[in-house]
Design a protein that fits this description.
TIM Barrel, 2 domains, 7-stranded mixed β-sheet, two-stranded antiparallel ribbon
C-alpha cells in the first residue's frame, strides 16, 4: 500500500516531517509522498530519516492554481519529482509563489479585522511559521473562540464563498502543469471531485481540456471520493491517456477524519503498482 498525498507541519499538517515518516513506517507503507503546499522543506527534512528506516519517500508538492481567467475556481495540482528532485528553475518559481502566499495572508488578516475579528498576521505566523496559510488562520479563530472547529472557521470566514475570503495571486492551471513538466516532474490533477462538476459530461469535457494542456496524471483515489467516483476517474484516465495517482491527503489533526494510508473510514488501499507505472 502507498500514499502519494500527505502534508507536514511545513505547510498545513500537524505531523512534523519525522513524525509523518515514522507513522508511515509503522503502518508498513511501501511508499509515501510528501506533497506540502508550495514547499519542499518537509520532504527535505524527512528524507534522511526515511532513508534510515528504509521507507521509499517521494518528492512532491501541491500547487494552488486558477482554473479560469478571470479566476473562477481554485484547482490543486500535485507535482511528483521521481528522478533526483526538481530543477532549480522550478524551485525559483516556487519561491515566487511563497511570496504571493505571504501577501495574501497579510490582506486576509486585514479583512478579518474588518469583520470585527481580532486577528493579526504575527499571531498566524507564530502558528504556521514561514508557510502560514488559511488552516493556520482557522486554528487561530478556534483558539480565540470565534469558531468551534477548523471546519467551522472555513465555513464562516475562510472558504471561497465566505465573507473573509481573500484571493491569492495564483498561476493558471495550464502554467502550473507546464512548470512541473519543465522542472522534470509528473503533474497530477488533485482530488478531481472538487472540480464541482455534478454533470458527468461536463466533468469529462473539462478533464479532457486539462489533459490537452499537458496533464500527465489524475488522482483517481482520494479520501473525498467514493468507489463510484474512483471508477469514473479511472475510466477518464484511460480515455485521456493519464497515469493514475492516489493518496489520503493526510493533514493530521487538521483533518482528523482522514487517516494516513487508508483515508476516510478505510476507503483507500492504493496499490504500489501505480508507482511502478509512474516510475516507468
Amino acid at each position: 500500500m502507498i500514499d502519494l498525498h500527505s502534508h507536514t507541519t511545513e505547510s498545513d499538517g500537524t505531523f512534523s516531517p519525522q513524525e509523518l515518516v515514522s507513522a508511515a513506517h509503522h503502518l508498513g507503507l511501501d511508499a509515501l509522498a510528501i506533497t506540502d503546499h508550495d514547499t519542499f522543506s518537509g520532504y527535505e527534512q524527512a528524507k534522511p530519516f526515511a532513508d534510515g528506516l528504509g521507507l521509499n519517500l517521494l518528492c512532491g508538492i501541491e500547487i494552488s492554481t486558477a482554473l479560469g481567467n478571470p479566476k473562477t475556481k481554485t484547482v490543486h495540482v500535485l507535482g511528483y519529482f521521481l528522478n533526483g528532485g526538481p530543477a532549480d528553475e522550478f524551485r525559483d518559481w516556487v519561491l515566487q509563489m511563497q511570496g504571493a502566499r505571504r501577501d495574501r495572508n497579510e490582506r486576509l488578516a486585514v479583512r478579518l479585522r474588518s469583520l470585527g475579528l481580532d486577528i493579526h498576521i504575527e499571531e498566524v505566523n507564530a502558528i504556521g511559521r514561514s508557510m502560514a496559510g488559511r488552516p493556520h488562520f482557522a486554528r487561530l479563530l478556534v483558539q480565540k473562540g470565534y469558531c468551534s472547529s477548523i471546519q467551522d472557521s472555513f465555513a464562516k470566514y475562510l472558504d471561497e464563498s465566505a465573507p473573509g475570503y481573500v484571493d491569492r495571486d495564483e498561476p493558471s492551471l495550464e502554467e502550473a502543469i507546464q512548470r512541473v513538466a519543465g522542472g522534470g516532474g509528473i503533474s497530477s490533477l488533485a482530488h478531481p471531485i472538487r472540480l464541482g462538476k455534478r454533470n458527468h459530461a461536463e466533468e469529462d469535457e473539462l478533464i479532457g481540456q486539462i489533459a490537452g494542456w499537458g496533464l500527465r496524471a489524475i488522482e483517481v483515489y482520494h479520501s473525498d471520493q467514493t468507489a463510484a467516483d474512483s471508477a469514473r476517474y479511472l475510466e477518464l484516465a484511460r480515455k485521456y491517456g493519464l497515469l493514475v495517482t492516489g493518496g489520503s491527503d493526510f493533514h493530521g489533526g487538521n483533518k482528523p477524519s482522514i487517516q494516513l494510508g487508508t483515508g476516510f473510514k478505510g476507503n483507500l488501499n492504493i496499490s504500489k503498482d501505480l508507482l511502478g507505472a509512474m516510475m516507468a
